[in-house]
Design brief:
Oligomer: single chain
CATH class of the largest domain: Alpha Beta
Radius of gyration: 19 Å
Number of domains: 2
Strand order of the largest sheet: 1-2-3-4-5-7-9-12
Number of strands: 12
Strand content: 15-25%
Largest sheet: 8 strands, mixed
Structural class: alpha/beta
């Protein structure tokens, strides 16, 4: 259903899906449970991510939480206490693979961290390409306080983002950081008022959409794959990613638009 040029949200029990032009907004919709992950939310999330991957009309994804209190408080501990050891293993496997799919999505993903993001909530944000936080955001990998460790990528993604020593401090102590400290340590890219956070995330997404779709996809691939290798191999990855853009119609359109002093119209071809 469209209204005012926007596709209205499609309500589900645990997840909202909305599009604004070329932007998909996924909203974790369990505000009474601080938007924590249960099996139902994981399954709904996994389905949407798969659909978005193969939807060329979507260029950028924004992930946020319903309400003003929480982005995501991690795993639903009320559900967790009812699970067998095998079910816990299934949950951890499911959330870890989901976050890897988000990280490896063929289009940029922005986390709009609108409040509490603990445990799996911070790990979800870490799997995104860009993190934008509200002033009331609180982040942390608090698992050791429950006698477990981060199990959805936190021990790997956090040190790669903020450095080994600081990551060890946060994981060992389970300490929370506010938005200001998160910004200072590079855990988030920017901080905004709660009222403006989503609008600012949409502005960022719109800016990304001005680039060529294939170029953005290849740039993301080159950065992510290259960082896991030595410089020489990384430069080879960049070179191969660049070659993919050369025969595209979009590259020629970009040159034509520059010459004609107009905005390019990219088609992802």
């Amino acid at each position: 259903m469209k209204k005012g040029g926007k596709t209205m949200p499609q309500e589900t029990d645990v997840l909202k899906y909305e599009t604004r032009g070329k932007i998909a907004i996924l909203t974790l919709n369990r505000p009474s449970a601080m938007n924590s992950f249960n099996f139902d939310l994981l399954k709904a999330f996994k389905k949407e991510v798969k659909d978005i991957r193969f939807n060329p009309a979507i260029r950028v994804v924004i992930i946020t939480g319903a309400g003003k209190r929480a982005f995501c408080a991690g795993a639903d501990l009320k559900e967790r206490i009812t699970l067998s050891e095998i079910q816990v293993k299934e949950f951890i496997y499911t959330i870890r693979t989901l976050f890897s799919e988000i990280e490896g999505l063929n289009k940029p993903v922005i986390a709009a961290v609108n409040g509490v993001a603990l445990g799996g909530g911070t790990e979800l944000a870490l799997a995104c390409d860009i993190r934008m936080a509200s002033e009331n955001a609180s982040m942390g990998l608090t698992e050791t306080r429950l006698a477990i460790i981060p199990g959805a990528g936190g021990t790997q993604r956090l040190p790669r983002l903020i450095g080994r020593a600081k990551a060890k401090e946060l994981i060992f102590t389970g300490r929370r950081v506010d938005a200001s400290e998160a910004l200072d340590m590079g855990l988030v890219n920017s901080v905004w008022s709660g009222e403006s956070l989503l609008d600012e995330a949409v502005k960022m997404a719109d800016l990304i959409c001005e680039g060529g779709p294939i170029a953005i996809e290849q740039a993301k691939y080159a950065i992510d794959a290259g960082l896991e290798t030595d410089l020489k191999t990384g430069l080879a990855i960049e070179s191969n990613a660049y070659w993919i853009t050369i025969p595209t119609e979009d590259r020629l359109e970009g040159l034509a638009a520059f010459s004609e002093k107009r905005k390019p119209v990219f088609k992802g071809k």
